[in-house]
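Quick one:
INPUT:
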């Protein structure tokens, strides 16, 4: 095919060739220019299809010389950006991987809500190494204006966990600074005094709601968590060996706790109507029972800020700790705490018992010392009498 004749225009670097088109003979305009020392040539457009003229082609040529990208270059740049973005481990991408790795994590839905509401808008499109200390500090200040310190702590701790997850799998670099989370002293230990406990036991005995009454009794006699009682199945109760098997507790690993006589009696009096020990009328396990246990609490005159089932767990632990007869390790195992740090909230009750025991030891030693002196005196008198 013979080469088409290039026809120059009055504009340097702008020329055209003529071809047969639908509307007859038509010009195709081209431009030639140098950018960063490299000679470039590209089509500017068709005379009729693109409404191209020599003047317009000259404007395009000027734009290219000034660094404006061609359409082809723009498409290539967008493509390269997409490829680069696909290779970036932003916080949003890390979160998706983090979430997928924890299908059975009980708190993942809570974490998802915190991530989507508080972390995604600020850090979702950033890689961890692009996040600076000031960004996190500004977020902390912003959150602190409307949220409780404990909630702010959970949000920032989630940020740390997501990044640590990615860094441990070599998906990204870690943060270049240490995230400071708010220090929160929110350890709440609920307890009942003897009079309150007596009234509550009477209210439980007088309640016509057997299900609610029994779940409150079991919480008090075993210290089981609300969720553990909701998931408890009859196959988990070993009446013969005297144990309750707690499946997938908060600590993660299934554990066994002793079935004492009082808890045994409660379970024997609990109607067996479903696979779960405590179930709704439709046979499904409970997810919440506050509407049924709170009337019993109110009937006993217990304050509204006493969280009924959780409070009974605390009462169970407090009674054991203050008795002075149970060490912290045993209490930790009974409460199925994963870490002894959780059990330490009851240590101050144990301290009072230790003080009493220490005082008792001092008194015993003092009495022994006094008794020894008295015995020595009596022996001396008896010897003198025999001599006389």
């Amino acid at each position: 095919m013979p080469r088409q004749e290039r026809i120059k225009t009055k504009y340097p670097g702008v020329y055209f060739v003529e071809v047969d088109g639908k509307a007859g003979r038509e010009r195709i305009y081209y431009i030639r220019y140098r950018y960063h020392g490299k000679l470039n040539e590209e089509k500017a457009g068709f005379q009729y299809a693109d409404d191209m003229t020599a003047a317009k082609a000259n404007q395009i040529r000027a734009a290219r010389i000034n660094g404006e990208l061609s359409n082809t270059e723009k498409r290539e740049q967008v493509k390269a950006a997409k490829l680069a973005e696909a290779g970036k481990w932003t916080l949003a991408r890390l979160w998706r991987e983090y979430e997928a790795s924890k299908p059975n994590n009980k708190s993942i839905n809570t974490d998802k809500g915190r991530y989507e509401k508080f972390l995604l808008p600020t850090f979702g499109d950033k890689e961890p190494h692009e996040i600076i200390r000031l960004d996190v500090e500004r977020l902390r200040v912003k959150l602190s204006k409307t949220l409780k310190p404990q909630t702010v702590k959970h949000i920032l701790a989630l940020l740390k966990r997501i990044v640590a997850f990615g860094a441990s799998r070599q998906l990204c670099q870690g943060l270049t600074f240490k995230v400071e989370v708010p220090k929160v002293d929110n350890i709440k230990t609920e307890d009942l005094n003897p009079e309150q406990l007596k009234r509550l036991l009477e209210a439980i005995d007088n309640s016509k709601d057997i299900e609610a009454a029994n779940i409150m009794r079991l919480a008090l006699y075993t210290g089981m968590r609300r969720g553990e009682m909701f998931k408890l199945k009859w196959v988990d109760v070993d009446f013969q060996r005297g144990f309750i098997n707690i499946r997938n507790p908060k600590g993660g690993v299934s554990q066994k706790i002793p079935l004492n006589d009082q808890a045994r009696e409660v379970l024997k009096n609990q109607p067996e109507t479903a696979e779960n020990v405590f179930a709704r009328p439709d046979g499904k396990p409970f997810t919440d029972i506050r509407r049924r246990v709170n009337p019993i609490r109110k009937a006993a005159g217990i304050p509204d800020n006493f969280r009924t089932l959780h409070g009974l767990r605390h009462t169970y632990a407090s009674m054991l700790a203050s008795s002075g007869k149970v060490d912290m390790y045993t209490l930790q195992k009974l409460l199925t705490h994963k870490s002894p740090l959780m059990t330490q909230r009851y240590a101050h009750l144990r301290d009072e018992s230790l003080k009493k025991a220490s005082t008792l030891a001092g008194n015993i030693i003092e009495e022994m010392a006094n008794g020894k002196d008295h015995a020595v005196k009596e022996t001396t008198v008896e010897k003198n009498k025999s001599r006389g």
